[in-house]
Amino acid sequence: MLTIRLSTTMTAAEIAPLWPGIVGCLEKYCRRFAEEESVAHILQQCAEGRRQLWIVTDESGRVILTPVTEIVTIDATGKKQLLLAEVGGERLAECMPLLLHIEEWAAREHGATEAQLVGRKGWKRLMEPLGYRETAVIWRKGL
Known about the structure:
Order of helices and strands: EHHHEEEHHEH
Radius of gyration: 15 Å
Strand content: 15-25%
Shape: globular
């Protein structure tokens, strides 16, 4: 059975033995996006309360996934949005149903009315069954 917890709801004693797994998952993400993100930056943003670190553990208590979220407010409308910012680890497809816990938390605790993920086209097969739909494609060019 997989479990998900928000790191800010955990004590230092609970989170301490999980640090190697947490850092390992974040490193896996950052290797893929080395020009855009670093483990230190993610952890700093989470420590400052700007982002949220979620910890998914497996049946043995091992950290297998570290979703990172952010609650943003759209300036023009004031709408609160859950931004699914980063995720690193393994067993992603198996963990997708846990996204519901994050969505419920964002709505309950922050009044979020929408969730957004910016990701590769491969996310489509994981997100559509959960009710997400593609609304844009991001094109990028180095200058």
